[in-house]
Amino acid sequence: MVGQLILGLSILVILHEFGHFIAARAFGIKVEKFYLFFDAWGLSLFKFNYKGVEYGVGWLPLGGYVKIAGMIDESMDTDQLAGPPQPWEFRSKPAWQRLIVMLGGITVNIILGILIFWVLTIKYGESYIPNSELKYGIVPGRSA
C-alpha cells in the first residue's frame, strides 16, 4: 500500500516537472537537470546524461525538480547575475514565455485531473437501465 502511494506520487511529480520541461524546451530555454526526488549534497541513486540534460533519481524523496538555465535565485547565485543574459537562459525570455514555463507544471496537473475524471466517468459512470429491468426502487406513478 505504501509502495502504491509512493509510485502514484512519483508519477504525479514526474508529470508535473515534465510540464515545466516541455514548456522550457519549446521556447529554446536550456534545461540542465530533470530529477525525481532531490539529489541533496550531490548524491543520487541513478543518473545519466542525454542531449545535454542530466536525468536522475535523487535519494531524498521530497518531490522533484527541473533545473532551468538562467532561473536564478538572486540571493545565492550572484556570479551568474554579473554576466549578460544569454539567449538560451530563462531570464532572457519575454515575460509571457517565462509565465508559461512557470505554469507548465500546474497545467499538466489540471489536464491529468480532467483526464482521470473523464476515464472514471466512462468506466464507472451512470448507466441507463430500462424500466423493465428495475426490480426494486422507483414505482411508476408514485412520488419518490
Q: Could you list some keywords that capture this structure?
A:
144 residues; alpha+beta; 4-stranded mixed sheet; 3 helices; 42% helix; Metalloprotease MmpA; metalloprotease; zinc
Structural class: alpha+beta
Our measurement of the CA-to-CA distance between the termini, rounded to an integer number of angstroms, reads: 41 Å
Main sheet characteristics: 4 strands, mixed
Number of strands: 4
Number of helices: 3
3D shape: elongated
Mean pLDDT: 87
Helix content: 40-55%
Strand line-up in the sheet with most strands: 2-3-1-4
Taking Cα atoms only, what radius of gyration do you get, to the nearest Å?
23 Å
Give the domain tally.
Answer: 1
Poorly predicted parts: none
Description:
It is a single chain. The protein has helices at about 1-25, 80, 95-125, and strands at about 30-40, 45-50, 55-60, 60-70. The protein has about 140 residues and is an alpha+beta fold. The chain is built from 3 helices and 4 strands. The radius of gyration is 23 Å and the shape is elongated. It has one domain (about 1-70, about 80-125). Pfam families: Peptidase_M50. It is a multi-pass membrane protein.
